């Protein structure tokens, strides 16, 4: 592993290769972490602590307190958390969803003593995007290589589709926003990012990258007017209040990138993962600094903690943690 910029703070090891990672981005469940391993999903709580009482740097160590494991019939491609999940209530409510290599979505519900799962089958190809509606968690959106986006009503006994969106190309990502309810973002491989109303079931607006293929997109948690996408080796940023043209286009490495994720703290900080070679980069837009560049074997997925400035990366059989400066 080659790393420049920041010191790695902590490593949590598992008994199998990590294929997906998801942290909860809600205050009441902010330490919940789900990890996809061969044949199972592991659910745990990340506990941060000072490595030493004498340590005045503010750096934190981390432990993974495992809550339970659940069998998974296929390789886990995507994981997302419901806003209904909570570790502060009694009993605990652990609600999350997965998308597997078998083109099936599974919604899990557990109190850490027993677990139930609901299987959703409509996709006919790989699922690339999966996200719960961020207010009540009653809707679940998915998109995939079958050129379809489904919005599932989880309150329905037969799991009816609330919406079915026919796409012009494979769906790469779906996003909801806690501060912009009733709106769903869907990013397509042909470079189109469209926003749909889940109330009227109609498109609201669309953005064209003007570049293909679009491999990843994200909606900033800290500012609902900011979105970003990776397409044809470039990183694009938009202000959707002025969507006619990107506010910034940043050229990435020649091998391009396949994933991006806004920091939970600032829309100025994004994490990206390389395509042909597994390379993690943390970019700060305002300072134009690359604050972290790390090459990994077997890189899986990137996420950010909700309330401490740490980026977490799944690769090989472990999670690695870095503290990222905010440059206030």
Describe the structure.
The chain has one domain (2-52, 61-323): Methylamine Dehydrogenase, Chain H (7 Propeller), CATH 2.130.10.10. Helices cover 0% and strands 55% of the residues. It is built from no helices and 29 strands. The strands form 7 sheets. A 5-stranded antiparallel sheet has the order 1-26-25-24-23, with no helix packed on it. A hairpin with a 6-residue loop joins strand 11 and strand 12. The model has no long low-confidence stretch (mean pLDDT 89).
Adjacency order of strands in the biggest sheet: 1-26-25-24-23
Gyration radius from CA atoms, angstroms: 19 Å
Going by CATH, the homologous superfamily would be: YVTN repeat-like/Quinoprotein amine dehydrogenase
Number of strands: 29
User: H/E element string?
Assistant: EEEEEEEEEEEEEEEEEEEEEEEEEEEEE
In total, the number of domains comes to 1
Task: Please name the CATH topology.
Answer: Methylamine Dehydrogenase, Chain H
How far from one another are the termini?
A: 30 Å
